[in-house]
Design brief:
homotetramer, about 350 residues, Rossmann fold, Dihydrodipicolinate Reductase, domain 2, 6-stranded parallel sheet, 11 helices, globular
Amino acid sequence: MIKVGIVGGTGYTGVELLRLLAAHPQVQLTAITSRKEDGLPVADMFPSLRGHVSLAFSAPEKADLNACDVVFFATPHGVAMAQARELLATGVKVIDLAADFRLRDTAVFEQWYGMPHSCPDILGEAVYGLPEVNRDAIRKARVIGLPGCYPTSMQLGFAPLLAQGKPLVNELGLIADCKSGVSGAGRKAEIGSLLAEASDNFKAYGVKGHRHLPETVQGLEAISGRKAGLTFVPHLVPMIRGIHSTLYAQLLPEARSTDFQALYENHFRNERFVDVMPAGSHPETRSVRASNMMRIAVHRPGGGDLLVVLVVEDNLVKGAAGQGVQCMNIMFGLDETTGLMQVPVLP
Amino acid sequence: MIKVGIVGGTGYTGVELLRLLAAHPQVQLTAITSRKEDGLPVADMFPSLRGHVSLAFSAPEKADLNACDVVFFATPHGVAMAQARELLATGVKVIDLAADFRLRDTAVFEQWYGMPHSCPDILGEAVYGLPEVNRDAIRKARVIGLPGCYPTSMQLGFAPLLAQGKPLVNELGLIADCKSGVSGAGRKAEIGSLLAEASDNFKAYGVKGHRHLPETVQGLEAISGRKAGLTFVPHLVPMIRGIHSTLYAQLLPEARSTDFQALYENHFRNERFVDVMPAGSHPETRSVRASNMMRIAVHRPGGGDLLVVLVVEDNLVKGAAGQGVQCMNIMFGLDETTGLMQVPVLP
Amino acid sequence: MIKVGIVGGTGYTGVELLRLLAAHPQVQLTAITSRKEDGLPVADMFPSLRGHVSLAFSAPEKADLNACDVVFFATPHGVAMAQARELLATGVKVIDLAADFRLRDTAVFEQWYGMPHSCPDILGEAVYGLPEVNRDAIRKARVIGLPGCYPTSMQLGFAPLLAQGKPLVNELGLIADCKSGVSGAGRKAEIGSLLAEASDNFKAYGVKGHRHLPETVQGLEAISGRKAGLTFVPHLVPMIRGIHSTLYAQLLPEARSTDFQALYENHFRNERFVDVMPAGSHPETRSVRASNMMRIAVHRPGGGDLLVVLVVEDNLVKGAAGQGVQCMNIMFGLDETTGLMQVPVLP
Amino acid sequence: MIKVGIVGGTGYTGVELLRLLAAHPQVQLTAITSRKEDGLPVADMFPSLRGHVSLAFSAPEKADLNACDVVFFATPHGVAMAQARELLATGVKVIDLAADFRLRDTAVFEQWYGMPHSCPDILGEAVYGLPEVNRDAIRKARVIGLPGCYPTSMQLGFAPLLAQGKPLVNELGLIADCKSGVSGAGRKAEIGSLLAEASDNFKAYGVKGHRHLPETVQGLEAISGRKAGLTFVPHLVPMIRGIHSTLYAQLLPEARSTDFQALYENHFRNERFVDVMPAGSHPETRSVRASNMMRIAVHRPGGGDLLVVLVVEDNLVKGAAGQGVQCMNIMFGLDETTGLMQVPVLP
């Protein structure tokens, strides 16, 4: 059994981790910390966990995280990098669901997250936790920086196009028009996320610039080995879970005869959590609700030169907690799907 | 033109007042205060008002509220009673959308609202702003305590039963099972009101006791002149606006032959904002969305001894801002429907 | 492995059965019928099942249902009773999610469902599939009539009160104010269930009389062995899944000193799927979303004589498919929780 | 008073027309037809209209549409063209909310709508009812083909870019990623529009090709006088009303120094129903809910060469019924805003 600790389990990625780990056959939930909720049984905050999780939150200094095999950080940005060194020193692996170990360039991190990076050396060894791209490195990693929810969908959606030896599309003019349910904003008391504000409503936000832009560009360039240019426009959907990314790429003349359906199917042939749907499909976010699955469909409207790729994922699962568990499975030599084969909940 | 001021216009009842008053043909919006938003054009906070409201918020001390004919308080409990005396002294009428002037008994007020009442003398002259019950008193009032959203629906729903010379139902065993959209919780940053918490979900709350209980009992007793007993169970509906109250009353043996459909129709025959629907109807909250209308249907399932009354209103209109404007119309001698004849928005 | 067939798998209870059975460790999905969708892979209709269910729908005459150990009917009323005899004759057990085997009295069935009952003899041996009441009979049953979604919540919510040797409450004056998500109306193309009609809206329906009334009264009387009288008012909530029943019962004078919290906890002490929450709780439907759990809270507002019981369940799981699997587990001697321990999905 | 008839008032654009026309000070609602609902008071079908509309539906042959000054067709495609000739012959003007008079080229009409066009001569004189583009022609028109909901947002959103003497953007590579509430699908009993299907879900549809594509391209080319190329990807949002179009246009090198904020503000300076928001804004659909307003924001992320234009409208008002009333006002010499100054409903 893998002994697992969670730092900061009071948010949506935290409770989702608990949902998945509570049912994971190889995991023993060992500690979950929250200074504010010290002593409160987790199931008192989240009654959905009654009968499944008997742990109580404990203040960080009381929790024996060093006794864990792995610790997940479901915390605001900045927390994991403050605690990682000590955990690593005692042999505990670290999986951060926040942004501390995502961006390779600390200057870029500081620009977008407004804080200096406190441990560039650990960042140096950290692995970006996108198994479909980095599986081998994950296997050997001690520190994982899990991708953001949007970046997961954008990178995997563009990956088959960019992973070829030569460019198929204008890689400097990529567009990602992304739509997310409001759980992506976290379990924070903010007016803009109230049901009375966000329900029966639709809007874009952060068009000027969003933290997931530099992360995604970094990832796309890692895939292609070439420079990438991306316009990323996020939108807020009046739903709880789910991301739908609509990706646009301009075909290069030499790629016009490519069979993109086949390209995508081949690229993901061995992936258990990426489902390339039949040509002509329109994946729905609910088709992956509460599961670690991603579904992708490739379109070329009117047979023209603009490729349209539709990607759906559950932002809390494949976009966060589920991907974290997937990485953990890889790191500990388990079958990658262990504890992650939930059938999506529909309707 | 009636010069109107609003104290505290940043919440849902505030913006709803602005929506109604901006289109009211006899109203000149004169001042709107918010210490926190001093200087901010109202339409910057609520873009829906762009082109309709050119006022900016001003700090209370800058706003010349004394130049108004009437001031609405769309504020937390306690604010109106702190400012009413000065306004009244300069001849300004006061309409409070909060609870300061609802409860006749200051001890009850203090018990439920946790603060002492600072002006019992003004409370003494204040009129409970439920036009269908108190129209004559409202006409002469200087101070109005507007009913709560739930109490409006419960009182008008039970009124025809209680307004008779002798009891028709067990007036000590009334039940109100009420359901409200989340805007009833106000424009406050609270986790329980987040879309990701309240959407696709249903729950009761406050079963132990809710502030609208004593207010409603007081109102029911004022209608009947007899003692009333009420169990009130509020629930939260994943929708923005609307209250649906399902009322239960046990018929007394001597009332079994009463034609309750006729009783209700007669009682509200001259009311412009209460619509008794045909027998067998199931009123929907959306049938009154964004309007000052209330719709009521009377049922007697299986021809038995339990009367079931269904009441719908828009909690922000007939349950708050609209009822305030209705009172204002009465107080200033206008036709009661002036500025209040919006057709409900459906779908 | 239990070989399972499903007749009529294109509705919401059908796809929910598939979700549960696909992950059930002791089940082999053997056949699923739909005349209209003959040949269509189930996962083409419900992409959430891609990778989990490889079966295709087949026309009834092609499906070898007789080779199954048990057949679920997720069909309109009337279908199961037409096919049960043949299946039983070949040793196949039958679990009907519709109403064919719920009502003991065929006259009542015909009155409420508008069709004669075609096999009173089979009805005679059928067992009402409410394990918390009928576990022993279910164990030996060949034919199960599964309770309706509302009746499950009402019966279990009232059960501890009625199961005592003498009445604790006025059993002739029970009230159930119930609220259901729209999946309860089934996957049928009806205008009233459109998102543009049912969203941001709330209403009662069927106040005059609802099919679940006689079923529930029959069940309550079976529990108490005494006559029961119930007023049942169903409402439609703008959410997908979930039932919240708010139950009212008038205490008898001799029961005033009863500890109802203890009564409920004792009654359900050994039940794995009924969770009596701590005193003062307000269960939310989302706390059981996508799980077979029911949660109950008992209130006595103001310490008065009216008991208020709050019950939540997922109408498609404990209210339908999950309860069916629970019965199947009992009938085949499995642990009752096999394949049913999903952690509820929150948020 | 303008005598107005409506053919086919049982859908969402029909009831929205009724909402607007019932409150229009210069309109007398004269007839509303529905063969199926002959004799049914309109307010029985739509209780929101109780007290506002006293008309009953009448079968087409009974309705004296010839006595009207103008007849709106809120019908399926094909109905208006079958009845227009007779109405025009008696001097009645025609405003069609469907597609019969949108496409100039009958071959294109037949290709996308699957029926021959029955009156090319009337089509020849019909005017495309987009006042911000065609105001003068609308003033003199006898027949109006109202734009579709998506095309209204796309054309007005791109208009300032295309209306210049020389191209500013790559007009052959325009992209419109559009999102619509489900009322856009009409009041039709279809499974895909059920709340249990469309709620808490997001998806694209019609990526292969959508009827609003040729209409929009025709309109864009009419604005620019040049060839246009457009990729249009519609998506379904779990909300009732509202369209959000996110438009992408690649700047030409010679346009890099253009002040696009000023360009948009100037272009729409005199328009009462198009609001160009301040730079950096993110318009929300709810900011125009139930109103005829459109709001637009112009972005240039990262100061790069891709222009992003955000457009919101209420699909049932500016995208349908409201635009129809706006055209009527122009045709009959009224102030264009008569009866259309409703303040948007927020929250």
